[in-house]
Amino acid sequence: MADTVAGASPDHQVSVSPTLEGDPNRRDFIHIATGVAAAGIVGGLAWPFIDQMNPAGDTLALASIEFDLGKVVEGQQVVVKWRGKPLFVRHRTPAEIQKAIAADHEDLRDPATDESRHKPGKAEWLILVGTCTHLGCVPTFGGGDYGGWFCPCHGSVYDTSGRIRRGPAPKNLEVPDYSFLSDSKVKVG
Fold it and tell me: For site-directed labelling of 49, which of 35, 74, 186, 187 has its Cα 20 to 30 A away?
C-alpha cells in the first residue's frame, strides 16, 4: 500500500515505505546490544581491581601451620615463617619465666601478665609474631637490658615475655592464635 505525499499531484503518486529507523524491533536491539557491550567493558575494567583484593596464593597455604616442638631445646628459639612473617617459637628456661613473672607488676607501656602470653600449663613455650610493633622490623633475641628481644633498627627492647619495656614500639610482640595438638606439637593459626 502506498501513501501519497502532500503536495504531489494525483497523477504522480510517490510511494513511501516505512524506513528501518522507525522499526521498534531494531531500535530495541541496538539499545540492548549497547547496554550489554557497556556492561562488558565496565566488568573488564573493574575485574583487576576486584581480583587484587583476593588473598595471595602463598598466604592461603600458610594460614595455619603445625610445628614439632621436640626440635627446640630449652633456652633455644626457632624462627618459622607464617603468613609471610617470622614466628618466634621460644623454649624458655625457668630463669626466663621467673624474670618475666617478676615484671608482671612493673609499670609497663602495654600491660600484660606473663600468664596471659602463653597457654595454661605451658609457660616454657612462648610463641610470638616476630615483628617489632613500631615499624615491623625483626628483633633479635638476647639483646637489651631485659634479656628478651632487641630491635636494632630503632632501639625497642622487649623482655622475656615479649612485652615492650623501652623504645618507640607502642605494643608488645603479638601472640598469635595457637593451640597444642599434643605435648610436642602446636598448631598456629
Answer: 35
Sequence ranges of the chain with CATH classification 2.102.10.10: 58-188
Structure confidence by residue, pLDDT tens digits, 53-85: 876 665 555 578 888 888 889 989 999 888 888
Class of domain 58-188: mainly beta
Strands 164-166 and 178-182: unpaired
Catalytic residues: 154
Question: The whole model's pTM is what?
Answer: 0.65
CA nearest neighbour of 188 among 51, 67, 105, 32: 67
Nearest 5 degrees, angle CA 167-CA 173-CA 177?
A: 170
CB atoms within 10 A of CB 32: 10
**Residue in 139, 137, 160 with CA at minimum distance from that of residue 90:** 160
Report how far residue 6's alpha carbon sits from residue 170's, in angstroms, rounded to the nearest whole number: 89
